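Lab notebook, bench 4. Still working through the backlog of constructs that have no structural model yet. Next entry is a single chain of 162 residues. Request: give me the C-alpha cells for it.
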Amino acid sequence: MKRSILAILIISLVAAFGCDNLNGQNKTVVEKGRLSKPAAEWKKKLTANQYEIMVNRGTEPPFNNAYYNNHQKGVYVSAATGEVLFTSADKFDSGTGWPSFVKPADTGKIAIVHDSSFGMSRDEVVEKSTGLHLGHVFNDGPADRGGKRYCMNSGALIFIKK
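Model written out:
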C-alpha cells in the first residue's frame, strides 16, 4: 500500500515538474486561453484526449503516451490543423516520459505564453494559429543543440512517418 502511494506521488511530481522553467526566452505575445474557434467547435473536431490536452490544457501521463519512445523518421503535425510542428531530426530522449524536441520545425507555427498554473512559473507552447496547448519549453535541453527542451504532449500531435 505504501509503495502504491509513493509511486503515485512520484508520478504526480514528475508530471508537475517534469518540464522545468525556461528563463529569459523571448515570449511571443498571445493572449492566454484565446482560441481561434469556440471550444464547442474544437470538441467536434478533436478526440476526447486531444480536447483535454489542447483545449483544457491538460497533460498526459509520462511514459504512457504515443510518442515519448518513438524513434521513427518523420514529422509531428498538429492534431488540430495538420501543420508540421516538429521533426524526428530534432527529437531527443529527455528521460521525462514525454516527446521532447530541441526546436520546432518552424518557429512561426508556435507561440510561447506564460503559464502560472498549479503555482508554477513555466513557458507554455501553443499553436500560434489556434491558441491550442501543445506542451511547455524549458532551458534544460542538450547544450550542444541549443539548450532548449520542447516538452510536448503526444495527444496534441500526430506522427507522419517518412
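Notes after review: The chain has a mean pLDDT of 85. Strands lie at 74-78, 84-87, 91-92, 100-101, 110-115, 122-127, 133-138, 149-152, 157-161. Flag for follow-up if needed.
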